Amino acid sequence: MIRSVIKGTGSALPARKVTNEELAKTVDTSDEWIVERTGIRSRYIAGEGETTSTLATMAAQRAMDAAGIAPEDVDLIVLATATPDQTFPATATTVQAALGCRGAAFDVAAVCSGFIYSLGVADSMMRSGFAKCALVIGAETMSRILNWDDRTTCVLFGDGAGAVVLQSEDVPEDGPGVLLTKLHSDGRHNGLLHTDGGPSTTGTSGKVQMRGREVFRHAVVNLADVLQEVLKESQFSAENIDWVVPHQANARILEATAKKLGLPMEKVVVTVDQHANTSAASVPLALDLAVRDGRIKPGDLVMLEAMGGGFTWGASLLRM
Length: 320
Ligand code: ACO
Known about the structure:
Strand content: 25-35%
Radius of gyration: 18 Å
Number of helices: 10
Low-confidence stretches: none
Helix content: 25-40%
Distance between the termini: 16 Å
CATH class of the largest domain: Alpha Beta
Bound molecules: acetyl coenzyme *A
Strand order of the largest sheet: 1-7-6-4-5
Shape: globular
């Protein structure tokens, strides 16, 4: 059967790491509060010359190197971001030019779920024969749309990028590849997590606004639901899963979701302590880390999941 197989992963972080202690010098907060409520200890913040496209390009290049493919092999780039370099053109086309790739390139806007959405879209396009080799990227510079005077949001986010190379391959039933992706959205909750501006309303990008408690409550329920949905349809059980690579919003959301599924935290890849919430970048960043440090191995059954503004949420089951 034809499947989209992950042939390589890559990631990139800005040069500057900012610890909670450092943040507490300019924001009315403390390391203790942030660690206790979120599990976050540090985040990376983009500096001059570092943008969503430069981070995305670096992550994608590393994924291509790991996969051993050349720019001319890539015929599709799907890039998830809520913080594009420009309102238009799509940041994916900037990355395409920087890498020297051809084919189709476009952005997907699903905020923190963006990478799962992009993986689902790229996988569908590959299964339909539109593309043979895709770069799927999640990249953000969330620091540029934070209100640094709002301690309820600015301590939670960070910048970064992650990428995978997907290649269309004829594999046996128990072989590698994306097995199943489920995507959902519910626009009625738009107001719980959003920016207070945009090109068509204020003519600005706006800044992040969030009702944290409500988001938390919806996240745990929606994530548990979509994970159950994927397990049911794929006919795997939670015990079959080798690794869960979740969106890294808050350590307490990761723990609550794992508990609901009956999964031990030893099977969950956690990077929120180091990276904070990097929105669309968080899942591919965590995936790359766990592949490179040898935790995730060929043949492993891996569940990716995310929930974000919209609300949007989804999960993808794959065999490495
Ligand atoms: N430092 C110190 N104190 C703070 C800070 C801060 N950075 N932020 C808020 N506080 C204070 C509040 O002012 C409040 O004080 P008060 O009781 O005197 O009024 C107190 O801490 C409690 O605030 P709450 O908002 O009730 O704290 P809560 O326990 O809900 O934690 C948090 C807030 C961490 C945002 C939590 O609700 C959360 O993680 N929600 C999920 C949101 C999320 O992760 N969104 C990311 C995008 S969506 C996604 O990825 C799933």
